[in-house]
Amino acid sequence: MKRRNFLKACLIGGTTIALGKTNKGWASGSFEGYPEAMGVLVDTTRCIGCRSCEAACNKEQKLPEPDTSFDDPAVFEHERRPTSKAYTVVNRYQKEQPSGPVYRKVQCNHCNEPACLTSCFVNAYTKTKEGAVIYNSKICVGCRNCMIACPFNVPGYDYDSATNPIVKKCILCYDTRLKYGKPPACVEICPQEALTFGHRADLIKLAHERIRATPERYVDHVYGEKEVGGTSWLYLAPVGFDKLGFDTTLSNDPIISNVKDFLGMVPMVLSIWPALFSGIHLLCKNQEHDGHGHDTDSNQEDTKP
Amino acid sequence: MKKMIQHGLAIVDSPYDEDGKKRTLVNKLLLGLTPSQYLLQAFRNPFNWILAAIFAIGIPVLIGRFIFGLAWATSGSNDYPWGLFLGFGLFAMVPLSSSGFQLGTACEIFGRHDLEPIERLALLNGLLGYFFAVMYLLADLGQPWRLPYPMVVSFGPAAVLFLVAWHVATYLSVQVAEVSTAFFEWIGFPAGKRGIRKITLGLTVSGIILSTLHQGALGALFTYAPGKVHPLWYSSSFQWLHFFVSSLPGGLCMVITVSTIAAKTMAWRGDTRFREKLDKVTVSLAKGACMGIATYITIKLIAIAHDNKWAYLDTGWGQWFMFEIIVGFMLPLTLMTYGVHTRKMAMVRMGAFMTVFGVVLNRVNTAMITFNWKLPHREIPPWREVIISLTIFATYIVVYRFILYRLPILFKWRQQEQEETVPEAVPAPALGRREASRVPVASYSSMTKLD
């Protein structure tokens, strides 16, 4: 009986270790981003808050008409976030400062190791080799875990649709432009050249070059170079990033590294528990019979090695 | 029902009625009453009127949610993607349903056959809790008809939710199998029951594995949002353990709560074994729950020490945290410990209610109230979201009651001497002991299939 139980435990352990591996799979190792990944450098010292990027995005992505026109300055009164109707928004900060307000464009930052991608249980997200994080609405179940996971609060959900609600967010104009080597619509339209499109690796060099050339203009940090494992969108700022609504408490590790503790434990439970509890069951069984004092021969056999 | 029994009604607890005739399915469904009697007792129960009022408002709203979309029914917030349906429905119902695997383990693995009077209730509590957690999930998903996608269409194996989906689906089937013994007795299909008994150990062990993992996984889901969950409710290393460990007293206390309610509101349904053993079993469950709560409080404090988060206790959030841990865990621990020692059952039961409250509050806090603590605004669920949540919960109660009234959960199904095989005539709860002396392990094939 003991051997039988042992064999059974081995069998279960074996299959479950194999099963557990698939659960862990992609969660191991660190990923620094594709070498040819593109990105955009946002120089907030150049942005004048004209919102033409918002207008260009709206047109390119065929989004619904906004509530007020793109010239309306009233939108700056409240901090906004990207939604299913606007993939990018510009917010105003530091308006009381003598140096004038600072504008910050918000959109999907296209992480190297996106939290949305790793949290998605149907693998609806893809990080393309061009650096864009794109989304497959055909398989999305609508659990909205990606919105929970996104450290930048980017994905918007189409709550209004009853039959086909989907997640909507910036895809770096992947379908219409990036795929063909063209910059996203917002970059192309920017009149101030506040947005620079290029290889992410080059942009990081460019950003540090700007800081080195005019150190009084910038704080010495490129936001997105290391945050949550690095993002394709990079930011330069004249004041501390925390003053511009950036989350400066984010770790440099990708979000998935928080989850690895748990994912690593999964195959262990799958393989240890069956043997452990079957063993306990055998122990308890014998004990019970000893206690009742009517041991049978077959049970005696069990206790012998 | 009480009055009718006084007037000489024989309750259905065996396949045969008082004249020795085999009961029909309709007769069993109507609790041995005539249709008019059945309706009469249903109308006489004031609780049914409350339920009717909830359904009268709730069902149209629930239908409206699928016609007009989530924006109509819920807050539809991008910052708070998970509202009441998941924050309460999924995250709170699942830990309260851990009873199934715990009592299964105690009875079948540890050989605690003295807990058998409550085993089936615990299994049923588990099954229904999970089933209705999935119902809440279906109400919340943007495209609920795609729920099977992670199983068949596209796999995201690195995601914790992938694991939750698979495990909850597997575990639901395990629980259906575990509870089906009661159903087979009631319907009169002993072969099915025998089949399940053969694989009980396999089912129970897979129940432990699946429960450990997905109770933990629900916690691990929040490790995707390290900056959003308040640090006092978050721990990147221990989150899954916090959820798993707190689910243990949660499930046990839920069984105490349900058995208390059942003993009060449907006393006629429990047999003498249930009535006599209930206090003793409750004490055993409370002991287990106390160990669980004590461990939970300890690891909660360790997590705070581990990341040195003591300073947060001095904030408003800290006070809310203290409220949760004191009222939801420390106080019930004290009450139950004292109650167990002095055999003051009211105190034990009060402690169990409070623990259930504490576990629910913990989940709602993690998923909703303290979520996005850095954002200036908090999300108050709109009335339609509340109504739908209430409606699903009312359905849960109705189904729970429907099953408790009929299936042999709180009582033993009496087989009459007409039964040809004497051992099989012994009602199920005694089977565990008998099985232990016979074949202690399940067959290989049934085990492997389940994993």
Could you characterize what this model shows?
- The complex is a heterodimer of chains A (305) and B (451).
- Chain A has 305 residues and is α+β, with helices and mostly antiparallel strands.
- Chain A has one domain: Alpha-Beta Plaits (2-Layer Sandwich).
- Chain A is globular, with a radius of gyration of 27 Å.
- Chain A has a three-stranded mixed beta sheet. Chain A has a two-stranded antiparallel sheet with strand order 2-3. A two-stranded antiparallel sheet of chain A has the order 4-5.
- The longest helix of chain A is centred in the C-terminal third of the chain and has 37 residues, at 256-292.
- Chain A contains eight helices and nine strands.
- Mean pLDDT of chain A is 84; it is low at 16-28 and 289-305.
- Chain B is mainly α and 451 residues long.
- In chain B, 70% of the residues lie in helices and 0% in strands.
- Chain B starts with a helix and ends with a helix.
- In chain B, 48% of the residues are buried.
- Residues 417-451 of chain B have low confidence and may be disordered.
- At the A-B interface, helix 1, helix 3, helix 4, strand 6 and helix 7 of A face helix 4, helix 5, helix 7, helix 10 and helix 12 of B.
